[in-house]
Amino acid sequence: MFCRRFERQVHVTRHARERMLERNISEAQLVELLETGDTRFKDDTRLWIAKAFPKRTDNLVCAAVVLEDLLVVKTVMHHFDWEAMP
Questions:
Q1: Residues with Cβ within 8 Å of residue 3, at least 6 apart in sequence
Q2: Where are the domains of the chain?
Q3: 14-64: per-residue pLDDT in tens?
Q4: What's 13-82 look like in SS3?
Q5: What architecture is the 2-81 domain classified under in CATH?
Q6: Distance between alpha carbon 10 and the CA centroid of its chain, in Å?
Q7: InterPro entries this protein is in (predicted)?
Q8: Which strand (E) or helix (H) includes residue 83?
């Protein structure tokens, strides 16, 4: 998959795929999250991307990603809260 927003190919780690399956987050939702979610950078390469999906009742869905040669999705969370961020 390719992310136009970050102009990079996307690599979803095994861990992130397992969390997506556990949390019923589809690949289509992940694509929408990456392309249109709100971002907060931890530093120059690490960030969180979060988005509320109207049909989900588990608050924000969030991906922890790293901008390298690829956009690496390290994990995917639900029940996410920006206020709980460090």
A1: 9, 10, 31, 34, 35, 71
A2: 2-81
A3: 999 999 999 999 999 999 999 999 999 999 999 999 999 998 988 899 999
A4: CHHHHHHHHHCCCCHHHHHHHHHHCEEEECCCCEEEEEEECCCCCCCEEEEEEEECCCEEEEEEEEEECH
A5: 2-Layer Sandwich (3.30)
A6: 11
A7: DUF4258
A8: none
